[in-house]
Write a structure and sequence with these properties.
Blueprint: H1 8-13, E1 32-33, E2 40-41, E3 47-50, E4 56-59, H2 62-69, H3 81-86, H4 91-94, H5 115-123, H6 126-161
Antiparallel strand pairs: 1-2, 3-4
Length: 175
Amino acid sequence: MEQPDVPAQLLTLREPQHELTHSPLFFKPTAELCALSEYRIYPGNGSLFIRRDGKPVFLGSSKAYSLTIQRKKPAKLVWTQAWRRLHKKGLAETTAKKRTRRVNKVARAVVGVSLDDIKKKASAKPEVRAAQRDAALKEIKARKAANKGKQDARSKAARGSGAGQRTKVPKNVRR
């Protein structure tokens, strides 16, 4: 078979055409992703929508096309991958849950109380604690009673002298 009149440069650039490259067995299916649902679209399926700005948008079904035209957000449609990603669905199969490390509690001394004193109080029996509490309450009550007795004596002395008192005159009285 003779070649038509073609310059020699073009003949060298032309790729050799093998029968295998055009046979259906050699074809590699490159699946596109649907712009709305993010499902795979295999060759021969779906539709290609060219936006006004010239960007090609692959849509897998008429449902996806309709929802895209209505400007629906994929994250609000429960069946889309965007919604599933947003609501953390389907992640349990791929990744195991992180194990949280428990923090060990460390006992520390407080200002005014040593660590040994704190441990003694914590290990004390409830009966001993109750007895200590009762003793502390009795001591506080006794102190209050003593203070009250002193105050009563002072107030009686102040009332008896009468030197420090003066009669109050109402402010809004015209004379």
